[in-house]
Amino acid sequence: MDSDPAPGSLGYLFERFPSFTQTFCAREVAALRRAGVECPVFSIRDPRGEPLRQPFEGLGETTYLPASFDDRIAGDTRFRREARAAQADLRALWGDESEKHRIYESLWLERACAGRGVKHLHAHFAGIAARTAFWLRRRGGPTYSVTAHANDIFRDEPPERLAQILESASFVVTVSDFSRRFLTEKFPQIESRLHRVYNGIQTGLFVRSDFPPGRPLIVAVGRTIEKKGFEDLVAACALLPDIDFECQIIGGGPLDETLNSQVEAAGLGHRVVIAGPKSEDEIKAVLARARAFALPCITAPDGAMDNLPTVIVEAMAAGLPVISTPVAGIPEMVEDSVSGFLVPERSPEALAPRLRELLSNATLARQMGEAGRLRCRRLFDIATTSGELLALFQRYGALAATD
Fold it and tell me: More exposed terminus of the chain, fewer Cβ within 10 Å: N or C?
């Protein structure tokens, strides 16, 4: 770029930061800091004590909002008066006071942003942090922008509230062409301010798999929730009784017991392991000795679905072929029959033959993995994605430029 970003005008607002399940957020902040953007980071909730909290570097200090505003409400007359007035507006706009903490948070942030020179906030997910930024802006506070991801736009937010949050934003980022089309169809009024920026990773930090000889390993990573399709993966493994292999499902979550029962009932205890959560370094080590990565995502009955799963990008960076499904933005990542395979949702009988191909043909797995690795470096490296985001901050005046 011809000019350098001026520090102090841009800040980030998260619901929880840094979060083990949202490593892409930490990578983005660190990349902007490396680019010279000294953006203050505010987090509504404190993740300290969260299991397997990652030792992220280059993030700087995070300012956490108070866990409770009771003392502020009781002892600060001005705060209490302003909160009551804003809550009346909240009731008129959103129908009740179930989001009253967004009012307290916006009042607190109004002063904090003024003290830090923050004139624009960027929030990841159109959820709690974006709602807080919305109320802060409604009070005349800093402008804001939002990166919209998956369930926050596909399912969680009521359409009328989501419309208000996105329309009030200076601009909106979303992480796939699929979700950009989705949002354009639902909210055509924001199309000119809606931009696709992929989530990025530091591709060079992932060791390329060496496809070791011996018993091949299939890896899957993600919370054990319905939309990940892990039950279909276990069912597909049961259709391969004549092949010796191992499958590790890493992540943990509410379906652990269900999956363990499925593994036991199918007699797969010697092949399929529900491995629970692992640190990022542990996952990298597993990827580096795997034959293939599988994530047969589905659209859940309540509309929940993945959009651009970061774990697929990480598997590509490790040079692994990926087997997934054509859900949301996944076809933008995995080129069918080039860097992996895309199979229909909820179809173990289609998934199993593709697993068989990669388990029995290390040469094919290596070729596909290399194609995916090169695609990952071209599209999903954090240097590229953070540069695109930085250009948007400057374009919309969220980050001033100096000569």
Answer: C
